[in-house]
Design brief:
Layout lengths: L5 E7 L3 H12 L6 E7 L6 H8 L4 E5 L6 H10 L5 E4 L5 E2 L3 H11 L4 E10 L11 E4 L12 E3 L2 H12 L12 E4 H7 L11 H12 L3 E13 L4 H6 L3 H8 L16 H21 L5 H17 L8 H6 L2 H10 L5 H11 L19 H5 L8
Parallel strand pairs: 1-2, 1-4, 2-3, 6-10
Antiparallel strand pairs: 4-9, 5-10, 6-7, 6-9, 8-10
Helix pairs in contact: 6-7, 7-10, 11-14
Length: 383
């Protein structure tokens, strides 16, 4: 039996109502040579019954008997797949109409081992206090998509420069795996350095590894997938500034690690640093990479300064001050000074912010309740 053309990976846990929509966005595609791999992370909901009701031989379903962390469940989904082209989706994500047909055509016409596309950001109702009815907007903020033709090959040197930016704790492109379609050959090459998904933030690691290892990587400036932020997602906790709960939701070891050289603070910065360290450990020698640990320390200081001035001092870890270097203690004293500290801290936070440029395209819709509703908008067609 030949392998399917596409493998669409869908890790899931207790979000059956969202999973139904994600699966529908795949099964509604005009191109039908695919498999859907549902890796059920010990759901209490009966996902298996839902799959049986669909009676679709293209769906591979497997349930873990115990709760896995996000990295383990992603690798589990990948191990169950066999397609030539692989895309990781979340169960609150989905494909725009025509995605599979268009990407199949591009892959056949080129020698690309990876195709990086734009996306839509779907914020579900009840996630953001400022967007109570939900919102749909373009989400392709990669700097290399800003100019030039809609489709272009990214040279290795350009990709490596973006990786170096990532290692310094800055953003110049998105790390969500929904952005990138990868070939089985690239997956296997990256996996020679260990599992394809590694670190506390497996998408950060895998995306950067693909940027470094792909023999040819195409950039397609077209919004092709939906990246969802639902009330049952890490993004929900992040937007609500409840990062400890977010770390527990991901079931990562971030809340357990106690390295004295890592400043406690933002879970995103901790996970980012974990991915950056893993990239340098696995691929640093091959691609002449170095880490900037000071940059991550400055971002944790900025995060905790923000908590301090927002009146949320109880959220600052008791170990934070203990782990500061002498020079950092002086900086902390200045930024938390009663009179000038607030003004100086704003400048400091702006200087070390993760995304050093503005990206906020206008929304396509400001009241979106579901992926099904978002997919029905004419602007979401890619064909």
């Amino acid at each position: 039996m030949s392998s399917p053309r596409f493998s669409l990976l869908l890790p899931t846990s207790n979000r059956l109502s969202l999973l139904r929509q994600a699966v529908a966005s795949i099964r509604d595609q005009s191109f039908g040579d695919f498999e859907i791999v549902i890796s059920d992370n010990a759901s209490e909901e009966d996902v298996g019954q839902y799959v049986r009701e669909l009676n679709d031989p293209r769906i591979i379903y497997s349930r873990s008997s115990e709760r896995l962390d996000v990295t383990a469940n992603w690798n589990r989904a990948l191990a169950l797949s066999s397609g030539e082209l692989v895309l990781m989706l979340g169960d609150d994500d989905g494909l725009a109409r025509g995605y599979l047909a268009r990407l199949d055509r591009l892959a056949r016409e080129t020698d690309a081992e990876a195709i990086y596309t734009g996306a839509f950001l779907l914020t579900y109702p009840g996630v953001s206090p400022s967007l109570p009815a939900g919102e749909l907007r373009p989400y392709g903020y990669a700097r290399f998509m800003g100019q030039g033709p809609e489709l272009r090959a990214l040279p290795y040197d350009e990709r490596r420069r973006h990786v170096l930016t990532m290692l310094s704790g800055r953003v110049s492109f998105g790390f969500n795996m929904q952005f990138i379609l990868v070939t089985r050959q690239l997956l296997q090459r990256v996996s020679t350095y260990g599992e394809f998904y590694q670190s506390l933030f497996p998408d950060y690691y895998a995306m950067v590894a693909c940027f470094l290892e792909a023999r040819q990587l195409l950039s397609l400036r077209r919004d092709c997938v939906f990246i969802g932020v639902s009330p049952k997602s890490y993004g929900f906790y992040h937007q609500r500034q409840r990062e400890t709960e977010g770390a527990t939701f991901l079931h990562t070891e971030a809340t357990k690690r106690d390295r004295q050289d890592v400043l406690p603070g933002s879970h995103i910065v901790t996970g980012w640093q974990s991915a950056a360290e893993t990239i340098v450990a696995r691929l640093g020698a091959r691609h002449a990479l170095k880490l900037s640990p000071t940059a991550f320390r400055m971002r944790q200081i900025a995060h905790n300064v923000g908590l301090f001035h927002a009146g949320r001092k109880e959220q600052i870890s008791p170990d934070f001050r203990k782990r500061l270097l002498d020079s950092e203690k002086i900086l902390w004293s200045i930024l938390t000074a009663p009179i000038v500290g607030r003004r100086l801290s704003r400048r400091f936070q702006h200087r070390v912010r993760l995304i050093p440029f503005d990206w906020s395209p206008p929304p396509l819709a400001t009241a979106v309740e579901s992926l099904d509703q978002a997919r029905a908008l004419p602007a979401t067609f890619v064909e």
